[in-house]
Amino acid sequence: MADGMAGGASSLAATEAFKALMGEGASPGAWIGSRIVPGTGSPVTLTDPATGAEILAYAEAGAEGAARAAAAAEAGSRAWAALTPPARGRALWAWGERVAGASEPLARLEAAVSGKPVRDCLREAAAVADMLRYWAGWTDKFEGRVVPVPTTHHVTVRHEPHGVILAITPWNAPLFTAGWNVAPILAAGNACILKPSEFTPLTSLAFAKLALEAGVPEGVVTVVPGTGPVTGAALLAAPEVAQVVFVGSPEAGAVIGASAARRGIPAVLELGGKSANIVFDDADLGRAAAGAQAAIFAGCGQSCVAGSRLLVQRSVHARLVEAVAEGAARIRLGHPLDPETEMGPIANARQHAKVTGMVAEGLAAGARLVAGGVAPPGLPDGGFWLAPTLLADVSPAMAIARDEVFGPVLAALPFDTEEEAIALANATRFGLAGAVWTADVGRAHRVAARVKAGTFWVNGYRSIHVSVPFGGFGASGIGRSSGVEALAAYTLTLAVWI
Ligand code: NAD
After folding, report:
1. Half-sphere exposure of residue 445, counting CA atoms within 13 Å on the CB side?
2. How far away, in angstroms, is 386 Cα from ligand 1 center?
3. What percent of the chain has pLDDT over 90?
4. C-alpha to C-alpha distance for 59 and 65, rounded to whole angstroms
């Protein structure tokens, strides 16, 4: 890995953490069986989001790596199925313990490559350990049933694993998303091929190595770094892959869903959002302002559930917008590896260009800049920085009110009535998440029932847990990747008539 390294704190941190996790002399490639297999495809460069400097380059796995990985995963799925359910549970629990023990280097590696503050990465590593422990308990509890049919038959319904499930993940929370998806796939008895984003493959590799060290058999977790259209598409075409779980943009989700349909394999799609945070004039405005701020600026707005639209009842609109702007100005931006940093840079150049382009377009369309809009002073040149940005006087027809930004940009819109708030909340093609802030419990129930969102909060935002079903409607996706619904999604339902 040292060969491709440029100078700088992130490069150094990434090198040291990668070595600590993967062993001296390890270079990024595909994790197949019990070792790294170097890629044979095109080079991919990882860039330090804080400075724009190169961290390292690796060769993507490509079609050759994908075929090899799929064969290894097929063998892994047989080894995993041969274990008793409690033995699978013990291995998942032990994996959780390993992740908890390695949380420090995992968090540093994640922060250096993704630009996410190390304090957030530490929390996410701890959450992944908990996900594994949670799903460890399910391996012997997803029971079948007997159906009392109107004949003399004895009918049993069984849940059987698919075999090999491909999980394709994005760059915004690589380790967290790996844990979120891989753990229930394994708990349901399947092997998993993980295709992390080409921008952030390193913590996924370390995650897989920890599985092996914890006693998860070879081939049960395979990691194949590379680009979507080349390595991702080759994996999706592999005959061993019996299902795909995709987390990413609606555009790529449409391509992947169509490929899966052509092959006749099921797809769970977890896509983007344009979630509405609705504040009524009877809400606790201090809490609503703090909640709105966290909803959009946590993770630099690069969160699928980001509360990117702030719908505020007109009588309190100006006050709330001012309070959110004041709060945004207090957020500590800084280097992702600084433990004091609350918000880091945008994760990559492509996303930075997209986000700043959408802000410029919003301003050109008549929105008013209340906060941010530029790189904050005192941070390294060349990094993908953008101060927390708040746009007001946004109209529902503007692109900034309808399209996903996936960056630290909040669009504020006023409303007058409950009916109008619900109509505005539902006026996008998405349906991932949302929230209402009100002191009226009846209104909270009415609004929660009528806003199209897979996850909805009352007087809060951002809480999610693997035990609760998560997923979207419309352009936000199909299927659920957590809760007992995930086990149903990751198994075949078989009816046996005796
Ligand atoms: P993206 O769609 O560009 O890429 C996501 C993953 O898909 C990457 O691994 C990429 O390499 C792969 N990919 C892209 N095209 C592919 C193809 N044709 N075949 C196979 N694989 C392909 O998304 P991104 O920019 O990495 O992430 C941002 C998006 O992810 C946002 O829209 C965000 O809302 C969404 N997201 C959704 C959730 C959720 O749970 N709903 C969570 C996080 C992020």
Report:
1. 2
2. 22
3. 97
4. 10
Cβ atoms 327, 289 nearer than 8 A: yes
Q: What is the DSSP letter of 283?
A: S
Q: Is 229 in the pocket of ligand 1 (CB under 6 A)?
A: yes
In the structure encoding, which two tokens stand for residue 397, read together? 């027809």
Q: Position of tokens 């009846």?
A: 442
H helices of 365-494, where?
399-402, 418-425, 441-450, 483-489
Give the mutation target among 194, 195, 197 for probing the ligand 1 site: most ligand atoms within 8 A of CB. Answer: 197
> Is pTM, for the whole model, over 0.85?
yes
Question: Is residue 343 classed as helix, strand or coil in its secondary structure?
Answer: strand
Q: Which ligand 1 atom is at minimum distance from the Cα of 198? A: 11
Give dist(CA 456, CA 276) in Å, integer: 10
Atom of ligand 1 nearest to the CA of 481: 40
Q: How far is the CA of 247 from the centre of ligand 1 (A)?
A: 5
Summarised one tens digit per residue, pLDDT across range 181-209 is 999 999 999 999 999 999 999 999 999 99
Give the dihedral of Cα atoms 203, 206, 210, 211; nearest 10 deg: 80
**317 DSSP assignment:** H
Higher confidence at residue 493 or residue 3?
Answer: 493
